[in-house]
Design goal:
It contains eight helices and ten strands. It is an alpha/beta fold and about 220 residues long. The protein has a seven-stranded mixed beta sheet, with helices on both faces. Helix 4 crosses helix 8. The protein is globular and about 50 Å long. The termini are far apart.
């Protein structure tokens, strides 16, 4: 997460701006994603997709965390046969987390309803001490008008292990002497195809049009390898 994120491509919803103001001064985010990676976004590949190919097409994890309704949530079972965008972040982040969720919400809103029905967005909290199911539900409400956003929380050690298995580095939140909470982690959106394998990664700064393009392609692909 970045304290000063890249320039936005479109104006953000008022709810996002209000949320950022409310959180200002309480939490700092840090993005350790190398800046050069963002330059790869928007490059045209031979397969026509705009995202970055993962080093390994890892299978979608079960996660087995707690959903916003307080019940156990199995990611594989709940999103079987669907394109699934997984993002590790936390609700007290002032910049990249809300900006990314706003971008995904806008991309989802511009998809044909038939395509949108085959896509889910999953926000996994890396700050479970503060991100209770109720907090996650209220935060995601700012971005999801019924597009199928899920919020998950659970023991930090379990979340970190699952994130690292997917190549996402997550560090435990820490409080500075001035009371500001910091958390260093990568901020990629992970796109799993309908076959349940990691298909693409999107670093901060990804264009909304790139999400829209790729989601249509991924949604059209079969649910089995």
């Amino acid at each position: 997460m970045v304290a000063t994120s890249q320039a936005r491509r479109t104006s953000q919803p008022m709810a996002v701006l209000t949320l950022a103001v409310l959180l200002a001064g309480s939490t700092a985010c840090a993005d350790r994603t190398p800046g050069m990676r963002a330059a790869a976004v928007g490059e045209r590949r031979s397969d026509g997709l705009h995202g970055i190919s993962p080093a390994t097409p890892a299978p979608k994890p079960a996660l087995d965390l707690t959903g916003t309704d307080g019940r156990p949530f199995d990611l594989r079972a709940t999103t079987a046969g669907l394109v699934t965008l997984v993002y590790f972040g936390y609700t007290h982040c002032r910049d990249v987390c809300p900006a990314t969720m706003a971008d995904l919400a806008q991309a989802m809103g511009e998809l044909d309803p038939a395509v949108r029905a085959r896509v889910r967005v999953v926000f996994v909290s890396t700050d479970p001490a503060r991100d209770t199911p109720a907090v996650l539900a209220a935060w995601l409400h700012h971005f999801d008008p019924g597009f199928g956003f899920y919020g998950l929380t659970g023991p930090f050690a379990q979340v970190r292990a699952q994130a690292q298995a997917l190549g996402v580095d997550v560090e435990q939140p820490r409080t500075r002497a001035d009371g500001v909470v910091e958390q260093n982690q990568e901020a990629d959106v992970l796109a799993f195809g309908r076959d349940g394998r990691l298909a693409l990664r999107y670093p901060p700064g990804t264009q909304i049009t790139d999400y829209i393009h790729d989601l249509q392609v991924l949604a059209a692909q079969g649910a089995t390898p």
